[in-house]
Amino acid sequence: METKTYGSLVEVFRGSLWEAELIKGLLESAGVSAMLKDETLSAVTSPYLPTGDVLVMVNKEEEVYAKKVVSERKV
């Protein structure tokens, strides 16, 4: 996965809203602060419903550990 950066944040996962919420929870339980970023919001349907991939973002300093946590998750 190509790492996208947004200021001091980096992408460690992308997927549907429910997948991203699960990964965010997994990271937070491992002590990593995480946030969600929606790539595309549809203003026509609702500004609160994501219509594209949701990105899980972490601080650059936690990127390596966060990617390890995500890659080692159990399905």
Provide tags for this entry.
75 residues, Alpha-Beta Plaits, globular, four-stranded antiparallel sheet, 4 strands, 2 helices, alpha+beta
Describe the structure.
The protein is of the alpha+beta class and 75 residues long. It has a single domain (5-71), classed as Alpha-Beta Plaits. The chain is 29% helix and 27% strand. It has a four-stranded antiparallel beta sheet. A hairpin with a 2-residue loop joins β1 and β2. It is globular, with a radius of gyration of 12 Å. The mean pLDDT is 84.
| Termini gap | 19 Å
What is the count of DSSP helices, taking H or I runs of 4+ residues?
Answer: 2
Strand order of the largest sheet: 1-2-4-3
Query: Gyration radius, to the nearest Å?
Result: 12 Å
CATH topology: the name is Alpha-Beta Plaits
Uncertain parts = none
- Sum up the overall morphology in one term: globular
Overall domain count:
1
Strand content: 25-35%
Helix content: 25-40%
The major β-sheet equals: 4 strands, antiparallel
Overall mean pLDDT? 84
Task: Give the SSE string.
Answer: EEHEEH
Return the CATH class. Answer: Alpha Beta
Structural class category: alpha+beta
CATH superfamily: UreE, C-terminal domain
Q: Kindly state the number of beta strands.
A: 4
